[in-house]
Amino acid sequence: MPLSGEDSSTPAPFSIAVPDGVLEDLGQRLANVKWPDEVAGGGWDYGVDLGYLKSLVGYWRDEYDWRAQEKALNQFSQFKISRDGIDLHFIHERGIGPNPMPLLLTHGWPSSVLDFHKILPMLTDPGRFGGDPADAFTVVAPSIPGHGFSFQPGQRRLGLVEIADVFNGLMTDVLGYDRYGSQGGDWGAFVSTRLGYAYPDTIAGIQISLLAIPREPEPLSDPTEDEKAFFAQLDHWLREEAAYTFIMGTKPQTLSYGLTDSPVGLAAWIVEKFRTWSDCNGDVDAHFTRDVLLTNIMIYWVTGTINASCWPYFARLHGPWFVPKGEHVVVPTGYAEYPSEILTPPRSLAERMYGNIVRWTKMETGGHFPALEDPQALVREIREFFRPLR
């Protein structure tokens, strides 16, 4: 259950326990969907394919078992704490090895801590999976404030700078780690980047799968071929794929009425990104199980957090860049470049902000959700990057 909102210095054990009434209400909504029409032969060209979504909702209504997924999530050690009026939920799994390194994992949007359910055991107990126990991490994986279980209605909204501050406070003040690594993709990469910039004496290094460079880069007088290719990629992204950013970043309240009231609308809003941003070759069911897709959607649904989860986009569009112009991230930085990531800037542009890139790996497969798409490869990359930083 949520905390009272009063600041508490000691984390309270937490288990997910969604009331039966919430699930009964969901079942009624799924049984009474009002479907739109579809452009003949449109498929996925104009958004989520109608036939696919009807099939997914049928599985959700008739076969999906939230209680089984809830039980699986509750196998992780979860806690809540309230700081500065923010309910903060996090997983805290101790490493099994001679000297586990503290590691902060941060998810993005439209993801949740569910992203990490495959990699958490491999990171905390490498010996169990044929690895070296010396590579063990003690993992802290928070729900971003305003996402999932880090929420209570009316809670104040936080941008990336404030989120990074809250997470550093969790790691240092609450959990007592004076030095730790940070890893993430999507907003998790942005938060890790901010942490590396703002707390260089605390952050041992950051390992990211999305480069957090501005989407409005300054013109170059003589761009290289790689830079030209990236600018073309960025132009396509802004024209064809970025509408969600501007809706969520300008009028999130208006959007939230439909997505908070309709589970099918919420599912469509989220599942489209899992298809478009992943290395699934258009077949989202072949790449992610329906249970994974729906459990991630359910975390937003049962907590009512789709509105609050928009806020980092609003803060991003209405405030300065979170690393001041001309400043650099000086902590060791590792970047895993996935072939189906939404944007893949060249190293020449990345080094304008990341001043200490020590590892740049071109991954063979994968996209925006590497912890779900190829967890073994991501774990190997995390281990390799942090090994000399322990």
Structural class: alpha/beta
The coarse overall form would be globular
Strand portion: 5-15%
Radius of gyration: 20 Å
The overall pLDDT average reads 95
Number of E-state strands: 9
CATH topology grouping: Rossmann fold
Helical stretch count?
A: 17
Overall number of domains: 1
What is the CATH superfamily?
A: Alpha/Beta hydrolase fold, catalytic domain
Question: What is the second-level CATH architecture?
Answer: 3-Layer(aba) Sandwich
What is the ordering of alpha helices and beta strands?
A: EHHHEEEHEHEHEHHHHHHHHEHEHH
The parts where pLDDT drops under 50 for at least 5 residues are: 1-5
Please give a structural write-up.
This protein has 17 helices and 9 strands. The chain is of the alpha/beta class and 390 residues long. The protein has a single domain (12-389), classed as Rossmann fold (3-Layer(aba) Sandwich), CATH 3.40.50. The chain has a 9-stranded mixed sheet, with helices on both faces. The longest helix has 16 residues, at 225-240.
Describe the structure concisely for a colleague.
By secondary structure, this protein is α/β, with parallel strands linked by helices. It has 17 helices and 9 strands.
Write the layout of secondary structure elements.
Layout: E1 12-14, H1 20-31, H2 50-62, H3 66-73, E2 78-83, E3 86-93, E4 101-106, H4 119-124, E5 137-142, H5 160-174, E6 180-184, H6 187-198, E7 203-208, H7 225-240, H8 243-250, H9 252-261, H10 263-276, H11 284-287, H12 290-303, H13 306-309, H14 311-317, E8 333-337, H15 347-350, E9 357-362, H16 370-373, H17 375-386
Parallel strand pairs: 4-5, 4-6, 6-7, 7-8, 8-9
Antiparallel strand pairs: 1-2, 2-3, 3-5
Helix pairs in contact: 5-6, 8-14, 9-10, 10-12
